């Protein structure tokens, strides 16, 4: 009996210690010891450079790691370590805590808006600008400027709208589907009715706050005008409380369409589950005809087994007038930029980082990884890899025709806008608030940023 | 002579206590003081600007209705988690100290969830609540499981409690078992000779004699559930629409997403005060119930 008593105490203690040890291990992804080590190394042999890479494109973490390995084989003096983040998880929180604790990553792959907010911490790439203007598509570098400064190198282009599964749509309408035939909201509703009659779910609305707040509601700010500066002014007016959203045609148009999507939503019975893999799979396998999402979902869809082969994209109609801005355009942006830290990194690290980024966007290995393996499209000329991403190829057609909504205004929005307004959109999605309530909550959110 | 002795004492103390004092200062005391200082500034990591602004962060905290309602939400959450986890742990421990077969295995089994990290555990329960249970619910027509528990404000609250309690129970159970084995056999024997039945043995003998274990368990479960962050992040991410944001989650969001470090830190200090007051009061009150056998 006594032995057992002691034994249980010892086991208990050992387990507690185990738990504590486990905690402490997982809490130090990139601590100061490592940075000191890196500095010491550069002093010892001026050639060896250690870089860290902070990645917010979490779905392609492994592809980046492969690239780092390849680059290390070509340039044995440069080692690059990935600092991963979870998909849709606390990415910004992690970036900020690294920065606040004085251990920023050498290279970051961040949303343009985040780079703008921390612009003093990043290296001005003005000397490299002319070179990249040569390499990139016309206008691509211009579009990546933040307040006129070249701080981040664009490497991916993304578009979003209503994706469609060609087979499902065509089976429902009994003929070939012409994406240009959907010009207005009524056209879309008629199509949804046919699909529902054919026994399929018409549309998938992914109920996550980022999809609702940034991609859907975010269109309100981008649709005001084709000019990003005008859109910025609109946001300023929102902050000053001068905008009544319920009287704004773009907002009401968007929300009327949202009501339609809500009614025909495949996840109608439980709209907030928001399982990205499951939603994408249901669309890819043809259980749902449309999906409000972007070409990035190819990272999931492309690798699925027994999925359909043909997909496309149509603009999200926001009114019944085909000529209105937005009804023929898909949203487009260069969402992620590579930027180089200028707060703690040494000049050697910065030079190595520049060389590595250039290698990533120009070499065959880099382009192959980004285009074929990540399934993203690159805003660069003379690409050495062929894209297998059917959805981004569909987006490219709109880009070539100039039918795009430039959503650059989101780069200038505060970092928490998607989480806060996304929560309001979720309330609207489940009917917890009505449109008046939604407009009120969104306006109230913006007012807290008055004068900031 | 006396001076020499006390000097020697100080030296001995530093040899043994120094390292741990250093570690404690480096990771607890100094960060705490710096944190307190931060609450009086408007520090922003983007600009590096930090000027003293007095108590205005605290004023904002007490005007922030969202934070106050989340603090209240956290109190409710903590109350139910503590009660449920302790009641279950107490009775499981009781059942597993009767000397039945396979007891050791069962103890290990109940303890295992505690070894699973909060994030993993959160994702595990997320799959259960949003996929497995709705699947079964739809198959067998159980209405309460037909939609995910995580998408409704009411059920998401309970989902959070169930997941946390599930993790805590094993840990508390071990402490209760240790407490029960400390109950002297002669007292129990005397009781059974006097003809006491099982329930009065529990109420009149085991319960009073295990008060120290209960105090520890309630203290641990209180502080751990007040500081829950990982399960909250992995299971509900504060959703649906921020209705299940615990105070810690709100603080992290405030500081690291909305960039209001000073206010976030001030909220953390308020939370610290609340936890300290409640935990100390409960252990003071319960300690009075302790008896000697």
UniProtKB/TrEMBL annotation, chain A:
Pfam families: SBP_bac_1 (PF01547). The keyword Methyltransferase does not apply. Residues 1-21 form the signal peptide. Keywords: Signal, Transport. Belongs to the bacterial solute-binding protein 1 family. This is ABC transporter substrate-binding protein. It comes from Paenibacillus albidus.
UniProtKB/TrEMBL annotation, chain B:
It is a multi-pass membrane protein. One of its GO terms (biological process) is transmembrane transport. InterPro entries: ABC_transporter_permease (IPR051393), MetI-like (IPR000515), MetI-like_sf (IPR035906). Residues 71-282 form the ABC transmembrane type-1 domain. It is found in: Cell membrane. GO terms for cellular component: plasma membrane. The chain crosses the membrane at residues 12-40, 77-97, 109-136, 156-180, 201-222, 268-286. Signal peptide: none annotated. It comes from the Bacteria. Pfam families: BPD_transp_1. Its main location: membrane. Belongs to the binding-protein-dependent transport system permease family. PANTHER family: ABC TRANSPORTER PERMEASE PROTEIN, DIACETYLCHITOBIOSE UPTAKE SYSTEM PERMEASE PROTEIN NGCF. This is ABC transporter permease. The lineage of its organism: Bacteria, Bacillati, Bacillota, Bacilli, Bacillales.
